[in-house]
Design goal:
- It comes from Rotaria sordida.
- This is F-box domain-containing protein.
- The protein is of the alpha/beta class.
- The chain is elongated and about 70 Å long.
- The termini are far apart.
């Protein structure tokens, strides 16, 4: 009898304890439920997230989150890493194009997509839709098809920084491309081939006419033709890039020559010649 009563008391005590735990848990849920957070707090959270992830995680939850992601004024940093071209097109149509005015940065990491997108005329077409762009970093810029003409004039008044890791366009097309901004302050370019790029006077005219506010200029040229080294007077090139126009600004000009010499072991075929004109500002 005593044992039965003791078990009954224990069961009642356990029931009361479970009820308290249940009440505490319910109270916690009412406090910590994500939907109870304010819109202002969500906007602060969104500032730390990638724009692509914001849309993917929140847009289709309910009407409130759809409104927060679609109609807010927060800036978006978008990074697309997908290898599927169809998926990239989908996100371009549903996220990038409708939010052009909000995009602070756009990062396309897949190399095949970059090659498809960034012929010069295609890059110009993208820039036409990003009027607030301030920083442009392009991994590989290649020449446009010969039958393609860029008809639209582009002026990006906020663009102050351009970095082209590998530039495969001729100087005529490069000059046309550089007309996109007269407010440019930093230009970093790595170029392979194309002796026209070694014309210091042509660079000087381009900078004075198209980039009057340029503060930092870092240019690297790489040549892999031994005949270039035989037929080109490096002294003339060096002297032209050593004029007061270049030295006074402390810009960097780097010439790198990789020479293939028949009959010489491969390990000895690499010759590098560099010119530094001061230290970049």
């Amino acid at each position: 009898m005593y044992q039965i009563k003791r078990q009954s008391s224990f069961s009642e005590s356990l029931s009361v304890q479970n009820k308290k735990l249940r009440t505490f848990s319910e109270d916690n849920i009412s406090i910590t439920c994500i939907e109870n957070l304010s819109n202002e707090l969500f906007y602060e959270i969104f500032e730390y997230l990638d724009g692509y992830d914001i849309y993917k995680a929140f847009c289709n939850l309910n009407s409130r989150f759809q409104y927060l992601t679609t109609f807010s004024s927060i800036s978006l940093n978008i990074k697309l890493c997908s290898n599927a071209r169809s998926e990239v097109k989908h996100w371009c149509k549903t996220v990038i194009i409708p939010n052009i005015h909000r995009i602070l940065s756009l990062n396309l990491e897949n190399e095949s997509l970059i090659n498809d997108f960034f012929q010069t005329f295609e890059l110009m077409s993208i820039l036409y839709h990003t009027p607030q762009l301030r920083y442009l970093i392009c991994d590989n810029l290649v020449e446009s098809d010969s039958n393609v003409q860029i008809e639209q004039s582009i002026t990006l008044s906020n663009l102050v920084y351009i970095h082209i890791n590998v530039c495969h366009i001729d100087f005529d097309e490069f000059e046309m491309f550089m007309k996109v901004s007269s407010q440019l302050q930093v230009l970093v370019v790595a170029q392979e081939y194309g002796k026209a790029y070694l014309d210091a006077d042509r660079w000087k005219r381009l900078i004075i006419e198209q980039m009057p506010h340029l503060l930092r200029f870092n240019y690297q040229y790489s040549e892999y033709d031994y005949n270039f080294y035989k037929d080109t007077s490096l002294d003339v090139i060096i002297n032209r890039f050593s004029s007061p126009f270049w030295v006074d600004r402390g810009w960097i000009f780097e010439l790198e020559i990789n020479i293939y010499i028949p009959g010489v072991p491969k390990v000895l075929q690499h010759f590098v010649f560099c010119i530094y004109l001061g230290i970049g500002k």
